[in-house]
Specification:
Blueprint lengths: L6 H16 L22 E6 L2 E9 L5 E5 L5 E3 L2 E5 L4 E11 L2 E11 L4 H4 L2 H7 L8 E5 L7 E4 L9 E2 L14 E4 L6 E4 L3 E4 L11 E2 L6 E4 L7 E8 L2 E7 L12 E7 L3 E8 L2 E12 L11 E2 L4 E2 L10 E3 L2 E7 L11 E7 L9 E5 L3 E2 L6 E7 L24 E6 L12 E5 L7 E7 L11 E6 L8 E10 L2
Parallel strand pairs: 21-27
Antiparallel strand pairs: 1-2, 2-5, 3-4, 3-6, 6-7, 8-11, 8-20, 9-10, 9-20, 11-12, 13-15, 14-15, 16-17, 17-18, 18-19, 19-20, 22-33, 23-26, 24-25, 25-33, 26-32, 28-31, 28-33, 29-30, 29-32
Length: about 475
């Protein structure tokens, strides 16, 4: 027999339970009686033109409801008992208020008439930057800023930029995104997306596009795409100088992650930087950078110099270490006050265990390019404990060794390539080192002194491509004079 239940009662009961939890009521306070569902007559609101500008309307919920959700009729939405809508262009706008009570939800609408377009509202920087202004009848076209680091990335919505993934320049070559052209027109707030036939789609949304195929070497999709007709855009000022860009009728920007609303983090004549939330989960914020089509970013030569680089782990060093790939380095009590090193504090280097830490290392990242023409030798003390497991085999098939190594490697890299910095590296190794004694090593990069692109120093102990972890100690890092 097919089970039958009252869906309206089920929804109301669920809402009541949520309300009870939020108000910390006791089980005894739920007696099975729910408030009646609100009716459309319970939804009332006022719409008051601003005293100085009739194209700005102030709305106030004058009816019931402890939550007020507004569709302002201009592609913008808002929450709260009092909100404001902005309407630069004349026309009729259908404004809908939805209230939520302990008995359910209901809505009511009004048509707001804006008698005349207010040009002054459109002659403001954010509108002009986005569209080219009233003098650009054809609008302004934006493209993905593919040559910029972080032109696509993901991280929390609370961060200033992508924390978890930040695309290197041209990282998405072949993904059908770098030839996309997005045009904003001031007239009619028209928007057009020329994708030249295909767009790049997040893995969770490929099913929305018939004919989408999974990208090579990844989980996202390449999808056929024709720009829908009658797409429009709108801007709403969510707070002072903070703007939200909303696209309607199927519009989106660049990499598609489901959302069509974008927070403008920064905009000027040539650059646009936005953030959007994927799936209403604030932790999943995608960041994208765009530039005006035809714009060539000025080439700013990097600073090129050399400074002292030293660390004795006694608090007087000038080095910051960044763990990478399962590698870490912290200050630690010297485990062997013997031989050439009786310092109280040293650095404890840990290579993580398992496949995930096969490339473990620590990095020193500089804000300038290293001038190693004269100063190109590093000194480092190291202690290789005999208690590490140097016999268990396990590693990548391409590696010439398959066990944890009694080895220290120092590398200089160009961080501009981010995830591919290793392809630029110069490496000096010290292998087959003695255990259970302090050793002083010199890493000579004089063969690479004509390189001008290094900005990262990598220390890697125990080898790479090896699955066995280990603990090591270092001290007295110094760039020799």
């Amino acid at each position: 027999m097919k089970s039958v239940f009252n869906k309206k009662w089920y929804s109301a009961f669920g809402l009541a339970v949520v309300l009870c939890v939020l108000s910390a009521c006791s089980p005894d306070s739920i007696d099975g009686e729910l408030a009646p569902a609100p009716e459309s007559g319970d939804v009332t609101f006022t719409a008051t033109p601003d005293a100085s500008n009739p194209n700005i309307i102030h709305y106030k919920n004058t009816g019931k409801g402890f939550i007020s959700v507004w569709d302002l009729g201009n592609s913008a939405t808002a929450r709260g008992s009092e909100v404001t809508g902005t309407y630069p262009v004349k026309g009729d706008y259908k404004v809908t208020l939805t209230i939520i009570t302990d008995g359910g939800t209901t809505s009511a609408s009004k048509t707001i008439n804006i008698a005349a377009t207010n040009p002054l509202m459109l002659n403001i920087p954010v509108y002009n930057f986005l569209t080219g202004g009233a003098d650009e009848l054809a609008g302004k076209t934006w493209i993905v800023d593919k040559d910029s680091k972080g032109h696509l990335g993901i991280g929390p919505a609370t961060s200033a930029g992508p924390d978890w993934y930040s695309a290197a320049p041209n990282d998405k070559n072949g993904k059908e995104i770098y030839d996309d052209e997005m045009t904003f027109q001031l007239g009619g707030f028209a928007f057009n997306y020329n994708a030249h036939g295909k767009i790049y789609v997040n893995e969770g949304y490929g099913s929305q596009f018939p004919g989408a195929v999974k990208e090579n070497g990844g989980n996202d999709f390449i999808a056929p795409y024709t720009s829908p007709a009658n797409m429009t855009w709108s801007l709403s000022e969510v707070s002072k100088d903070k703007w939200q860009l909303t696209l309607s009728n199927g519009g989106h920007l660049g990499y598609y992650v489901g959302s069509t609303s974008y927070e403008i983090l920064s905009i000027n004549e040539n650059e646009l930087y936005v953030r959007q939330i994927q799936g209403n989960v604030a932790a999943n914020a995608w960041y994208q950078k765009f530039i005006r089509k035809g714009y060539t970013r000025p080439v700013v030569p990097p600073e090129y110099k050399i400074e002292d680089i030293e660390d004795d782990f006694e608090g007087t060093g000038n080095v910051v270490y960044v763990g990478d790939g399962g590698g870490s380095l912290v200050t630690y009590d010297n485990p062997a006050l013997i031989g050439i090193n009786t310092s109280a504090k040293v650095g404890k280097y840990v290579k993580g265990d398992g496949n995930a830490a096969e490339f473990a290392n620590v990095q020193i990242r500089k804000a300038y390019k290293l001038d190693i023409r004269e100063r190109n030798k590093f000194k480092l003390k190291v202690f290789i404990p005999g208690y590490n497991d140097y016999t268990t085999a396990g590693g990548e098939s391409w590696q010439s060794y398959q066990t944890l190594q009694k080895q220290v490697s120092m590398k200089l890299q160009n961080r501009d390539l981010e995830g591919n910095a290793y392809t630029t590296q110069a490496e000096v190794k010290a292998s087959g080192l003695a255990t259970d004694k302090w050793l002083e090593l010199t890493f000579d990069f004089s063969d690479f002194k004509d390189r001008t692109d290094f900005d990262q120093i990598v220390i890697q102990i125990g080898g790479e491509g090896i699955f066995t972890g280990g603990t090591f100690f270092i001290d007295d890092l110094e760039l020799l004079k």
